[in-house]
Specification:
Helices cover 45% and strands 14% of the residues. With 218 residues, it is an alpha/beta fold. The chain has a five-stranded parallel beta sheet, with helices on both faces. Strands 5-6 form a two-stranded antiparallel ribbon. The two termini are 14 Å apart. Bound molecules: adenosine monophosphate.
């Protein structure tokens, strides 16, 4: 059985996490977020977390070898047999080159860039809150919780990410532009690249993504 692999690309705050969760619900394939896995390692204070806390807390990328190996291990699990959604990986051209080696000839890869300009998404990020249990993402611009500060699903108090401070957000935008944006050109050459407008309402972006992934990939 060939795997359907959806790779979401986009600026911090473009909506990758939110859209990944929509795809998980609909396609029943897991979301693989390297950011979530690294934050989880930090919370557990294991070797990986302790080693990378400084870089993550200052908005810098952790090294390619570290993320490549956590992804290789994660996608070898049984629940990835039918496919998976990559959120936040690959983040550099060398990561994309390594990731290519993890693919089979029969895999269908969809790279979807959720395009949203920095100036429009700063407001989302400075007000972004996450549920510590289910990972649901809220903000006061495009996705307000029903009750301020509380997850609609779990009824738990929402938390702010340590790197969602304005000065760090601007640094993460810079890093995205310099290290991750070159992936657009990289994937444009492969024919599996698609772009959606991330400034539209969440449901419309989801619909657009649905149209893309419901087609046959290559
Ligand atoms: P994210 O949740 O995707 O915004 O990631 C949060 C932080 O985790 C980033 O600022 C990086 O420090 C680290 N990180 C997540 N994914 C990667 C990756 N693919 N390569 C390098 N660092 C990453």
């Amino acid at each position: 059985m060939s795997r359907k692999i959806v790779k979401l690309l986009g600026n911090p705050g473009a909506g990758k996490g939110t859209q990944a969760k929509e795809i998980v619900k609909r396609m029943n394939i897991p979301q693989i977020s390297t950011g979530d896995m690294l934050r989880d390692a930090m919370a557990r204070q294991n070797g990986l977390g302790v080693e990378n806390r400084k870089r993550m807390d200052s908005g810098f990328l952790v090294n390619d070898a570290t993320v490549n190996s956590i992804v290789a291990e994660r996608i070898s699990k049984e629940d990835c047999r039918m496919g998976f959604i990559l959120d936040g990986y690959p983040r550099t051209v060398p990561q994309a080159e390594t990731f290519q080696q993890y693919l089979d000839r029969t895999d269908r890869l969809f790279v979807i860039e959720i395009r949203a300009e920095n100036s429009h998404i700063l407001g989302r990020l400075v007000t972004r809150l996450m549920c510590p249990a289910c990972g649901e993402i809220y903000n006061s611009v495009s996705r307000k919780p029903n009750q301020t500060g509380t997850c609609d699903r779990c009824q738990l108090a929402l938390v702010r990410r340590a790197d969602d401070r304005e000065e760090l957000i601007l640094e993460r935008f810079r890093i995205y532009r310099e290290e991750t944006f070159p992936l657009v050109e990289h994937y444009q050459k492969t024919g599996c690249y698609h772009k959606v407008d991330g400034l539209r309402p969440i449901a419309e972006v989801s619909q657009e993504i649905r149209k893309i992934v419901d087609c046959e990939g290559r």
